[in-house]
UniProtKB/TrEMBL annotation:
Gene3D superfamilies, alphabetized: 2.60.40.790
Keyword Transmembrane annotated: no
Residues spanning the signal sequence: none
UniProt keyword Cytoplasm, yes or no: no
Protein name as catalogued: Heat shock protein HSP20
Lineage: Bacteria, Pseudomonadati, Bacteroidota, Sphingobacteriia, Sphingobacteriales
Family recorded in the similarity comment: Belongs to the small heat shock protein (HSP20) family.
SHSP domain sequence ranges: 35-147
Length: 147
């Protein structure tokens, strides 16, 4: 004997109009609406090694000169402001998603940061920012003998 579970409906959900639920489902699942709800800020990976913190920001299609990195006390801010040129284009787009014209990302820095050892490099569409740690913050590895 097989037990089959059928999806349950709420009471009186389709009594008024059976098409109401499908219209709202189609409206909210439409790509026109969902594309506008997606954030237009590049994704970030933050990792920590023994001697530094690393920030990787995915921002393809930009140039090194587009980035501005500012450090103010315990806050590092990475920003891009790029003016798009509105030239005459012979292409007829059905969908155009390249819209990283400007963005700003800010991150809090811990007290263990060495502000003199902050480096940034942009390669293959990824901005890599390395923030060094102070000497006292670097934990020395050692073997502890059990007595």
């Amino acid at each position: 004997m097989a037990l089959i579970k059928f999806p349950t409906k709420t009471v009186n959900s389709d009594v008024v109009n059976p098409y109401v639920n499908s219209i709202f489902d189609n409206f909210f699942n439409d790509s026109f609406i969902t594309d506008r709800l997606v954030t237009r800020v590049p994704a970030v990976n933050i990792s920590e090694t023994q001697d530094s913190f690393n920030i990787e920001l995915a921002a393809p299609g930009l140039q090194k000169s587009d980035f501005k990195i500012n450090v103010d006390k315990n806050l590092i801010t990475i920003s891009v402001e790029r003016k798009e040129e509105n030239g005459t284009d012979e292409k007829l787009y059905s969908k155009k998603e390249f819209s990283y014209s400007s963005f700003t990302r800010s991150f809090s820095l811990p007290e263990s940061v060495n502000y003199n050892s902050i480096d940034a490099a942009y390669t293959d569409g990824v901005l890599n920012v390395s923030v060094g740690k102070k000497e006292e913050a670097i934990v020395a590895k050692r073997l502890i003998e059990v007595k």
